[in-house]
Design goal:
By secondary structure, the chain is α/β, with parallel strands linked by helices. Helices cover 32% and strands 22% of the residues.
Length: 311
């Protein structure tokens, strides 16, 4: 919650890293921070593309807990510290809460810290690409082509559909270690927010039993989730004539088309995707949440991981 609430001027990649290190200090979590040079060397065109309009260089943060456990899970969190929309600029009103756009990354680190504190018998590796999406003379432009970590290409139609670009690289990188399940969490689409409102997270999965396990582990309703379909026919909406895909499928079914793009970067692994664009931030104080960051997703994934650890 605190990470989400910090103002964007303060919340540089270095600041975010410092807060992560404070959060996991004293826990059995190994931590690595990779800089822009490493990101370029590892062919993460989405991370580099989104970040190149900002004067603040990107980071790629990795944490690992219990690497010798029988079951291994990878978790990717979206870390856009501020989202102006880039050259596809948001309105002033649309930017007012965009310091929230790193809630997925904050959630991912909150999850691994909680898992370590509770000493769960499960392996968990967290990956968070950390960027700003800003307009400038060096920013990516609509029509640009990005070369991604797994060799696929994406045509940028809208620079404000940036979260999926950094998540795609991180998912591809995490998939290379072949975890049992690969998970992600992101304030990804306004479409999920419109569809489900401020109290319900959207959950997608390419595996029916994995999806049922996640929903069953959260049946107490403290965090409320609703599954949305990975409708394969909608892939035509992100088809590009000059690249493997494009980063925006238009107005309709936006949460689904964003999830379908991410699915292209998880190989054949069991995968869960949480879109928390609505519930990541409370618009006013309530009996459950103060105004601002909610930490939504920490409990949801913790419940799921605790169940998986016992299976």
């Amino acid at each position: 919650r605190d990470m989400v609430n910090f103002p964007a001027l303060t919340k540089s990649p270095e600041f975010f890293q410092t807060k992560v290190e404070e959060l996991i200090d004293g826990l059995k979590i190994s931590f690595k921070s990779y800089d822009e040079g490493w990101i370029k060397e590892n062919n993460m065109g989405g991370v580099i593309g989104v970040s190149q309009g900002s004067e603040r260089s990107p980071k790629f943060l990795v944490g690992e807990y219990n690497p010798k456990a029988k079951k291994q899970i990878s978790l990717i969190g979206k870390g856009v510290l501020f989202d102006s929309g880039g050259l596809s600029l948001k309105s002033p009103a649309g930017m007012e809460t965009m310091k929230t756009d790193m809630a997925g990354a904050a959630t991912a680190w909150g999850i691994i810290a909680l898992v370590a504190k509770q000493d769960l018998d499960i392996g968990l590796k967290v990956y968070t690409p950390i960027v700003e999406n800003m307009p400038s003379g060096t920013a990516i432009r609509p029509g640009d082509i990005l070369n991604m970590r797994n060799g696929k290409t994406i045509e940028v139609m809208n620079t404000d559909a940036e979260g999926r670009l950094i998540m795609a690289d991180a998912l591809a990188f995490a998939s290379e270690s072949k975890p049992d399940i690969i998970c992600d969490v992101a304030t990804l689409t306004g479409a999920a927010y419109v569809a489900l409102g401020v109290e319900i997270g959207a959950v997608f999965s390419n595996n029916k039993s994995t999806l049922e396990s996640f929903l069953d582990s959260n049946s107490d309703g403290f965090e409320n989730y609703h599954s949305l379909p990975l409708e394969q026919s909608y892939k035509s909406l992100i088809k590009s004539n000059i690249a493997d895909m494009k980063n925006s499928g238009g107005r309709f079914g936006g949460a689904i088309t964003a999830a379908l793009l991410l699915e292209e970067f998880v190989d054949d692994l069991d995968w869960i995707h949480l879109d928390i664009a609505g519930p990541a931030r409370s618009r006013s104080s309530s009996s459950l949440y103060p105004e601002g960051g909610t930490g939504f997703g920490v409990l949801g994934y913790f419940n799921f991981l605790a169940k998986e650890a016992n299976n």
